[in-house]
Hints:
Layout (H helix, E strand, L loop, with lengths): L1 E21 L2 E15 L3 E5 L13 H16 L3 E2 L1 H7 L7 H19 L3 H5 L5 E3 L2 E3 L5 H14 L4 E4 L6 H10 L5 E4 L9 H7 L6 E3 L8 H9 L4 E3 L6 H10 L4 E4 L7 H13 L4 E3 L6 H11 L32 E3 L12 H7 E8 L2
Parallel strand pairs: 6-7, 7-8, 8-9, 9-10, 10-11, 11-12
Antiparallel strand pairs: 1-2, 1-4, 1-14, 2-3, 5-13
Amino acid sequence: MTRLRSVELRLISLPLVRPFRTSFGEETTKDAVLVRIETGEGAGWGECVAGPDPRYSEEFNDEVWLTLRDHLVPSLLDRDIRAESLAGDLAWARGHRMAKAALEMALLDAELQASGRSLAEYLGADKDRVACGVSVGITRTLEELLKQVGGYLADGYLRIKLKIEPGTDLERVRTVREAHPDIALSVDANAAYTLEDAPLFRALDELELLMIEQPLRHDDLLDHAKLQREIRTPLCLDESIRSAMDAAAAIELGACRIVNIKQGRVGGLLESRRIHDLARAAEVPVWCGGMLETGIGRAANLALAALPGFTLPGDTSASQRYFAEDLTEPFVLDPDGTIAVPSGPGLGVAPDPGRLERCTLRIERFGKG
Ligand code: OSB
Ligand code: MG
């Protein structure tokens, strides 16, 4: 147990090296709420995965800020807390998993720094490098898509994921598959389709994809189970899995054969580990998704991806795939397609003070720090 002395919230904005377009919109900057806490033992950083608008999820940055400022932080300030009981302490507040996860990340960082342990070791990692894939946004042209995919393959990425939406799907995926017959290739629809699009999924079924990610509604399991019964390609759920309970239900229903784990979407790293454990027991592969995180959230993702059940390459790409200048020391892809898992205490990284100041849009502090 340690006393929560102060919390600092910071809204940051970093330009992306290239716009990232999905079926729910286009982003040209990475805007995120960072959390820095001080406890009786030390300090820690957390990064919230929410974006500027409630598109990927209900949570968004301005709302996360108010939720933390007016509800979650006041309920914890000057109290004795521990990362392992934080979710229970915050259970009175329904939902708001991304905001809660950012607090948990900061608390884990502080606790583990104090005990000199790395997050990866604490979570139960069994490797010190993780296999990385890359998520390719929807491009304006096919040529541009082939150019980006070719570049990422030359960098060493071990799996290419193409974002798709109605109208820009089959032809693009087929073109990439024809250009690269042997690569691990997947698609992510971000919930843009319905069961009426089953003919499209049957056509994609011919292209030997590693998986089809979140084809249907974000809050659906039953239709995903129906679709999975009609096609060979494994379905992977992202948006539909918000907790270990959701993951258990999806697996039992046959709504997916692969699970994408994002710590922010499920309320934190500890819930992520529970999903990992239950999927592993059910022999369902998992992989670590991404939310275009800065080096802070990326460090947490890499630690999580080092757990034994993460058997597929994650969206844990190198810093330079996102930013000209990351907030932390950059994460670098080895030509073999892996990135080293941070091994220092806690997250093992911290933001560079100068870069942090330059990208900060707003800051607010609570408690006596
Ligand atoms: O659906 O996985 C997704 C980014 C933002 C929101 C949702 C998603 C994504 C990605 C990018 O696919 C993954 C990454 O490289 O961080
Ligand atoms: Mg996804």
